[in-house]
Amino acid sequence: MNLLKISAFMFFLVTVLFGEVKEVDKLFEQVNHASNPKEKKELIEELKKKLAQENIKKREEANAILKAKEKLPNKPYKDIPLSK
User: Fold this and answer.
1) In a domain, 8, yes or no
2) DSSP 34-80
3) In a domain, 79, yes or no
4) How far is 38 from 44, CA to CA, in rounded Å?
5) Which stretches are annotated as coiled coil (predicted)?
6) What is the per-residue burial (b if ≥16 Cβ within 10 Å, else e) of 27-54?
7) How many Å apart are CA 29 and CA 69, to the nearest integer?
8) How far apart are CA 52 and CA 48, in angstroms?
9) Can you give the pLDDT of all 84 residues of the chain as single tens digits?
């Protein structure tokens, strides 16, 4: 019974953490449901701006990861005792 409760809690936790609705997704839905061409065009322009912002953020994160990866040594350190 405890295993069932724990697994249900973990499932709930994972779905809540990873089940986020993003603003871009909301805009996609609004574009799909817009009936007026003018409104649809405005929503598409707003969607383009949001996607550009998201793209810039992701690119900055990727560049930061690449810079951090450059600092890592290429070969693992071997501790060889000094002998004469």
Assistant:
1) no
2) --SHHHHHHHHHHHHHHHHHHHHHHHHHHHHHHHHHHHS-SS----P
3) no
4) 10
5) 41-69
6) bbebbeeeeeeeeeeebeeebeebeeee
7) 38
8) 6
9) 677 778 777 776 666 666 555 777 788 888 888 889 899 899 889 888 988 998 999 999 999 999 988 887 777 777 777 776
Question: Is residue 81 a part of any domain in this protein?
Answer: no
User: By C-alpha distance, which of 60, 56, 54, 64 is closest to 27?
Assistant: 54
Domain containing residue 65: 20-70
How many structural domains does the chain have? 1
Q: The whole model's pTM is what?
A: 0.57
Cα angle at 40 between 22 and 43, to 5 degrees? 35
